[in-house]
Task: structure prediction
Amino acid sequence: MLASSLSHLKSLARLYLTFNSLAVLLPFLLGRTGDRLGLPRVAALGYRTAHRLTAHRAHSGSRSVFKYKALVEFYATRLEWRLNGSARPSPDPLFLCTIHPIGKSPRSDHGTTLHPTTPSSSIKPAGRFDADFTHLGLRLEGFVGRRTTAARHLELWLDEERIRTLPLHRRRLLPPFFYYHLSREVLASLPYSARLSVRTAEGQTLGFEQTTAAEITIPHGDGSLFEHLRAGGSIDKKGFLAPTPTMADRRQTRCLATYAQARHYFMQRLNTPLLLMYGTLLGQVREGDFIPGDDDFDVGYLSQQRSAAAVKQETMQIVVELVLAGFTCSFNRNGRLFRLRCQEDPPDVQLDVHPIWYAEGALWTPPQTSLPLTPDDCLPTQTVRLRGEPVEIPRHPEKILTGCYGEGWRVPDPSYSAASHTVSRRIRRKIDATCITPADYKRMQALIDSQREAHPQTGRLIAVGLHPLYPLSTYEAHCEW
Result:
């Protein structure tokens, strides 16, 4: 009971950190409570209030709105669709999906009805998990008993096939816990109906309400997941379908073509080289190619500024210039600048661009790194080849890679995850200072609009966290999930 209460408090704390505003969080929680209890008028009051307040904050200096705007819009739109007659076409396929305990079935008020076949509550599960559809897909979270498992991961099973391991986090005063999102594209690859369960590495099952598994129904699912897994694909650490080797190779080649254009622009117009960074640099140095299956293309540039605030202003100006030059730039729900792609490419063919600057005796670079190095470790760059194309790498790439991945970077580690690294609050605070707010985005967009006539090839600046979620087809044409 204590473990369950602590886990519930942790979920509430996570929501508060996401919203960072009680004024929006409280009506949202009212909407969720009404939704779960089958009280549509209460839910409507909560969601509509939260949605109205969110729209007001979309012009503010608070970055948290980037994270929760689409979440609020998802629940508010789903309720409006249900209240106005769900017989009409659904604006979102997730509105038709259900998840409920094995042995229970959905009621018309979206609660559940117990069947006589429900397993006995005398079953002692290894822990508990909960599941809920959100704008991103299906969120899973839960906990295990402190002495249940010594492993650092759990296993996610679909019917009788393990489809993913889930990292298990351990913190003081909390039971070991996990959280994970199955993305929309993964859900679309599931069968129409399946049994979803979470197990320990030793095979013990976690409970879902009073049962040991969930029945998930995905009406738009095409059942292709298992074929994808057999073809060499997987579900990655972020909950997306990791591409098959053929798909990854194709995307990497297209990203390399984007890099060639961006490299030329950075050298000719900004007078600074565009360096390979992180996993892209690791693959080039260690293997002479991309890391197999890697679908990120990380690059960076060395700023001449010496403070996070100055780097932020410089990066904003660079983004404006890139958009005016015809590129499409976007930033994520943390407000972190920026991703870059060519106008004709889809959102998943892009470069993750990281500003790098020197301050306090270290090189700083998003998303969460401070390296005990100097600018001389980056410049002058080396020009090498990646799949036959010229690319720029730091002057001392081994030092960069050791700082990012440790001394063992030369040995491939398929289980490596940057999320397992603990970052001090001081480092996180300094790097977060380079992130932009909704008000910053509005100023950048106004500057681009004021010069659009003189630049007919102007691209787009996309705030993923502010872009309307519906119609869904428009969102997916412009934004990455």
Notes: Confidence is low (pLDDT under 50) at residues 107-121. The first helix runs from residue 2 to 19.
